[in-house]
Amino acid sequence: MMQTHKRSSAERVSASNRVAAFVSLTKPRIVILLLVTTLPAMFLAHEGVPAVGLMVATLIGGSFAAMGANVANMVLDRDIDQLMQRTLHRPLPMGLITPRSATVLAAGLEVAAAVVLVVWVNVLSAALALGAAAFYIVVYTLWLKRRSPSNIVIGGAAGAVPPLVGWAAVEGNISWASVLLFAVVFFWTPPHFWALAVRYRDDYQAAGVPMLPVVADFRRVANRILSYTFIVVALSLVFAPVADMTLFYFLCAAVLGAVFIAYAVGVRRILTAEFAIKLFFFSMLYVVLLFGAITADVLLIS
After folding, report:
1. How confident is the model at residue 10, as a pLDDT?
2. Best label site of 4, 88, 230, 265, fewest CB within 10 Å?
């Protein structure tokens, strides 16, 4: 009966709604956040503004790779998405898009990413972007997400690769500065996601997904959020001398880090889902402003 309902829904959906459904499968807001960490790495590697064509090709290729991985994630998680209130209205659980169509889209996006990056950027950037996509699909979605509370800790590495892609696009190699940017995003991901998972703990529990807030009490989760936040801030400060940044970046990183830590301390002290969501939203702003400070340091201050 459910399959019949899904087919009829897919048949009735208008062309414009179908396009919107396909777009939502790619998780565009997440892709934008990934691009925020790609472009500053390119400016830093070039010590200025790289060629426009190179920037466009890198951002398009990186976007395609991330979008394809996001679509594949939606296909593989469609069974648990229909069990969670937060994801119940996504296109696949709603029957607006068939799994086969979504799978074709995912594969097409990855092929397009490979072509764009290999032809107009370089092989290393293509290998990094496609490797991150494969890691997200296989290691996070297929292996860890439903098996281990460390799922987002390890699986989050995929989302930390864009700075490496940006640096490699310009220099054709990997530097310590780009590795530190990878590490900042890598350690930023768990507290960012755990804060959200606290809010949707019941959803994850209903779907049988062992996110940390499902298997641990709130205080333990808050302690982990605080410890990872300290690591993120420390790495952001160490980045300054390694990348030869000016005092402007260092002060920006210090102020942003102090606010981030204050939010993490608040989560541990107040222990409410409402305050955890405040940290979740600030953590997104933190990444945007931190990488914006890198861009400003390179283009305006140095």
Report:
1. 47
2. 4
Q: In which band, very low, low, confident or very high, does the pLDDT at 4 lie, cut at 50, 70 and 90?
A: very low
Same domain for 246 and 275: yes
Give the mean pLDDT of 48-56: 97
Per-residue pLDDT tens over the stretch 198-224: 999 999 999 999 999 999 999 999 999
Range of the domain at 261: 175-302
- Return the pLDDT at 17: 83
Written in H, E and C, the secondary structure of the chain is CHHHHHHHHHHHCCHHHHHHHHHHHCCHHHHHHHHHHHHHHHHHHHCCCCCHHHHHHHHHHHHHHHHHHHHHHHHHCHHHHCCCCCCCCCHHHHCCCCHHHHHHHHHHHHHHHHHHHHHHCCHHHHHHHHHHHHHHHHHHHHHHCCCCCCHHHHHHHHHHCHHHHHHHHHHCCCCHHHHHHHHHHHHHHHHHHHHHHHHCHHHHHHHCCCCHHHHCCHHHHHHHHHHHHHHHHHHHHHHHHHCCCCHHHHHHHHHHHHHHHHHHHHHHHHCCHHHHHHHHHHHHHHHHHHHHHHHHHHHHHC
Is the four-CA dihedral 144, 145, 151, 156 of positive or negative sign? positive
The per-residue pLDDT for 2 is 44
The gap between the terminal CA atoms of the chain, to the nearest Å, is 64
CATH number of the domain encompassing residue 202: 1.20.120
Rg of the chain over all Cα atoms, to the nearest angstrom? 20
Q: What is the pLDDT of residues 58-105, one digit of tens each?
A: 999 999 999 999 999 999 999 999 999 989 999 999 999 999 999 999
